[in-house]
Amino acid sequence: MDRGGYLAALVQISDALLSGDDRLHQVAQAATMVRQVTGARLAPVFLMSETGRDHLLVADDEQRALLGERFTALPVAPYVRAPWLNSEEMPVWGRDHLDAWRLLPADFREVFGQSEVCVPIHADGRHFGAMLMAFAPDVEPDDDLRAFLAVVGRVFGNAVYRWEMARRERELGALEERRRLSEELHVDLSQQITALGLQLGLVEMDLAEMDLAEPDGAEPARAGPDGAGPDAAGAAGRARLVADVGRLDAMVDGVKQSLRVQMLGLRADAELATGSLAVRLQEQVEAFRQQTGLAATVDCGACGEAGGVPPFVAAQLVRVLQEGLANVRLHARASRVVVRLHPSTAGIRLEIEDDGVGFDESAVPASRIGLRIMAERLAQVDGVLRFEAVAGGGTRVVAEAPLRARDTGGVEVEAVLGRG
């Protein structure tokens, strides 16, 4: 195909990625167009999962059938590394790097062959995945095909990047809305609990006024304030007590419902932090190391003491780590990253330290919402975020959060989160 044909195809592929609301279908459709234009036998797309541990298959039914269940997801290792992931972000032919190609799993080499091509999907310096293509053995790539696939990787990457930014904008809005609702709910709960206390006072007054039947030998009960006998006064008191208890039950139900609304908002993040917080942090750092090639380590000498971190706190720390590592990859120009976790009986501190160029927090443009998201997440758990300059160059991100339970009126947070 000549350059004019490739250019027209790129316009159609870009349009396919921009049209519709089903993004996975859009990616699969655009990948099919690439396959048809190039004559490739295979052209599935693998997009990085949210956890960063896998690349998930996005393809039409025909491609899925050819690949089989084995290729539904590909782990980061051994695929995300040089030469397939390269600083120039250019397509790489397996036949040009046979030594590296032979290190790939045998079943992968069997399906894709030496004519396998890895087309990185990227934008703004971020790796989002790859299109893994396979051509007939006799197909020789020319400069036009290589240039076309290089642009394809950028077109797909720009689409995924736009979706990612839109998702993060929604996430930031949701976090701000959660904070507003949390403040309103806190006021609402305080008012309801105060009303409960007043109502209990009324119950005590009614109990004091009740003229119950006296035991043998007791003095006769006095008449009620309206002159009625003791039985009538006792009955009236009991009636008032029943009514007061009914109102108390209604108030308690109101408190429970308010708490449930507040706690359900934390459930999704709680699921993120299932298991050991230290293990989740180590998984994130290892995925980052494999994706970037940077020296990344976890200093977790006291992590054995971090077993009591509430789920909603652990979830926000994992999210902050993800955002912090993304900032290192994009902006720090660092060669080394150290993640430290410092638990104590009162709180927990997460540090992300790099040896990069550092940055001026006040100079960060408003369009960079990552720092705001990190701060908003910590605000959800009464935590704080700060940035420190590292001697000799670099930045240390410090995220601290208390471990005290939130004021939930005596209801255990973990118990609420665990219910259906």
Give the helices and strands, then pairings.
Blueprint: H1 3-18, H2 23-38, E1 45-48, E2 54-58, H3 61-67, E3 73-75, H4 76-79, E4 92-93, H5 98-101, H6 106-112, E5 116-123, E6 126-134, H7 143-209, H8 230-264, H9 267-272, H10 277-292, E7 295-299, H11 311-332, E8 336-343, E9 347-354, H12 370-380, E10 384-389, E11 395-402, H13 413-417
Parallel strand pairs: 7-8
Antiparallel strand pairs: 1-2, 1-6, 2-3, 4-5, 5-6, 8-9, 9-11, 10-11
Helix pairs in contact: 1-2, 1-7, 7-8, 7-12, 10-11, 11-12
Shape: elongated
Spans of at least 5 consecutive residues with low confidence: 261-268, 405-420
In total, the number of domains comes to 3
Quick one: biggest sheet? Answer: 6 strands, antiparallel
**Termini Cα gap:** 57 Å
Q: Specify the structural class.
A: alpha+beta
Number of strands: 11
Helical content (DSSP H or I, runs of 4+): 40-55%
The CATH superfamily of the largest domain is GAF domain
Beta-strand residue fraction = 15-25%
Order of helices and strands: HHEEHEHEHHEEHHHHEHEEHEEH
Give your account of this protein's structure.
It is a single chain. This protein has 420 residues and is an alpha+beta fold. It has three domains: 3-169, GAF domain (Beta-Lactamase, 2-Layer Sandwich); 176-268; 272-417, Heat Shock Protein 90 (2-Layer Sandwich). Helix content is 51%, strand content 16%. It has helices spanning 3-18, 23-38, 61-67, 76-79, 98-101, 106-112, 143-209, 230-264, 267-272, 277-292, 311-332, 370-380, 413-417; strands at 45-48, 54-58, 73-75, 92-93, 116-123, 126-134, 295-299, 336-343, 347-354, 384-389, 395-402. The strands form two sheets. Strands 3-2-1-6-5-4 form a six-stranded antiparallel beta sheet. It has a five-stranded mixed beta sheet with strand order 7-8-9-11-10, with helices on one face. Strand 1 and strand 2 (54-58) form a beta hairpin. Helix 1 (3-18) runs parallel beside helix 7 and helix 10 packs parallel to helix 11 (311-332). It is elongated and about 105 Å long. Residues 261-268 and 405-420 have low confidence and may be disordered.
